[in-house]
Q: What sequence folds into this?
């Protein structure tokens, strides 16, 4: 009761303060130019010049991911990502990769819950080649049974097996996801379930490609050394004539609520040590509370000076590993903590330590010194990302998909830096004072 009264008083003080006392002016934390255009076919284009190095980075991001895998067909988005390198009308199989490698470029691709990402960096005089390669596979990917089966066997299924071999806690982590995200759409693994991947067909891939790999479902972000007029001419030449989709389905609308009561589970596995999975379902994290909860992640889990690392590993010495943080799958968010426990006798003590630290965050103000330390680490990670043209191009595309404008990038870091201790405590209390889900993993 005393705790609730204290929080109420703090909330009332917080609400009575003038806006200037709550949030300082947000400085421009993205010191690069941003130009945005939209082609007639719906392709969103972001351009940001930087002449410090003779390279240019291009990210193309499709607004579809593993959440768009139909029921019983997990791994389809991941299969689509890998097939995008298997040849199109004018580019042979794996030639896309060969072209990039030969000119000294590098590339990356990734599948997320709500997006497919293709990112490449090349010498600046090769921008035209890169845009042509991307437009060719957007408009004319060649999908055949042989290619689908080869990718399934040599890339998807081998990746699933590799992850199992490398991470002894993987199957337990997937089981925990099924508890946190209580429906197939959100809880199936991005790389797919092995029996379902084996059943994926050419028709499945063709349907995904024709539905989602379309210009009006994509953001094209170009960062680095280029001339604006030339870049716009190349974008129009290669992408303008690609037809838009007639109808792009939205993401599944599935109810998601905080856990109504505490849920505890136990399972035995072939693991090297006992472990604890601990998590909360969170209310929708966007737009503002996402920033506060990310800062909570830094306070609790990032670095050797974070609260849980100091408590469980340094002070109490009950755990050998502690990881986790906020995980967002489009409009669903959870906060996850994983601890590898030193032995079975320390399980209860480890659980009490985690609960204690979560409670401390929700009921007490974080000191200015500790908060500034977390902000400094977050800022360092942020600056490292936008320091490179490759990180910057992907960052701008993400911001566009999240906010509908890349200009929001200018406010992003300030939204973290302006968080004050009382706001952090109130938000943490709303997010973490509810019931949690915990899963104990025992060694067989």
A:
């Amino acid at each position: 009761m005393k705790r609730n009264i204290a929080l109420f008083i703090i909330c009332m003080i917080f609400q009575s303060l003038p806006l200037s006392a709550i949030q300082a002016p947000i400085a421009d934390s993205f010191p690069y130019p941003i130009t945005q255009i939209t082609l007639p076919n719906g392709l969103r284009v972001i351009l940001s010049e930087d002449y410090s190095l003779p390279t240019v980075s291009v990210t193309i991001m499709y607004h579809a991911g593993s959440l768009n895998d139909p029921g019983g067909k997990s791994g389809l988005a991941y299969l689509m990502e890998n097939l995008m390198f298997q040849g199109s009308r004018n580019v042979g199989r794996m030639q896309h990769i060969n072209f990039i490698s030969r000119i000294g470029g590098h590339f990356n691709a990734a599948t997320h819950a709500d997006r497919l990402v293709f990112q490449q960096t090349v010498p600046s005089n090769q921008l035209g080649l890169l845009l042509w390669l991307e437009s060719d596979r957007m408009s004319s990917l060649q999908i055949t049974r042989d290619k689908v089966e080869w990718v399934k066997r040599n890339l998807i299924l081998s990746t699933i097996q590799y992850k199992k071999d490398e991470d002894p806690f993987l199957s337990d982590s997937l089981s925990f996801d099924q508890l946190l995200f209580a429906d197939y759409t959100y809880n199936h693994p991005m790389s797919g379930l092995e029996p379902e991947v084996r059943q994926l067909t050419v028709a499945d891939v063709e349907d995904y490609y024709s539905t989602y790999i379309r210009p009006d479902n994509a953001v094209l972000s170009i960062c680095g050394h280029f001339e604006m007029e030339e870049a716009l001419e190349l974008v129009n030449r290669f992408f303008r004539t690609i037809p838009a989709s007639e109808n792009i389905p939205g993401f599944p609308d599935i109810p998601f609520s905080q856990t109504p009561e505490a849920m505890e589970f136990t399972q035995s596995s072939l693991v090297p040590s006992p472990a604890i999975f601990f998590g909360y379902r969170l209310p929708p994290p966007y737009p503002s509370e996402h920033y506060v909860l990310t800062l909570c992640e830094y306070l609790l889990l990032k670095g050797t000076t974070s609260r849980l690392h100091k408590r469980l590993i340094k002070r109490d010495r009950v755990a050998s590993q502690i990881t986790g943080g906020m995980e967002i799958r489009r409009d669903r968010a959870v906060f996850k903590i994983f601890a590898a426990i030193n032995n079975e006798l320390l399980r209860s003590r480890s659980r009490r330590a985690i609960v204690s630290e979560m409670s401390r965050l929700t009921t007490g103000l974080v000191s200015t010194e500790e908060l500034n330390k977390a902000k400094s680490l977050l800022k360092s990670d942020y600056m490292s990302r936008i320091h490179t043209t490759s990180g910057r191009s992907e960052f701008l595309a993400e911001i566009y998909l999240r906010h509908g404008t890349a200009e929001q990038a200018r406010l992003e870091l300030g939204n973290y830096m302006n968080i004050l201790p009382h706001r952090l405590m109130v938000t943490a209390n709303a997010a973490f004072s509810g019931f949690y889900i915990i899963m104990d993993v025992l060694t067989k």
About this structure: The chain has two domains: 35-239, 256-443. The mean pLDDT is 91. The longest helix spans residues 145-166.
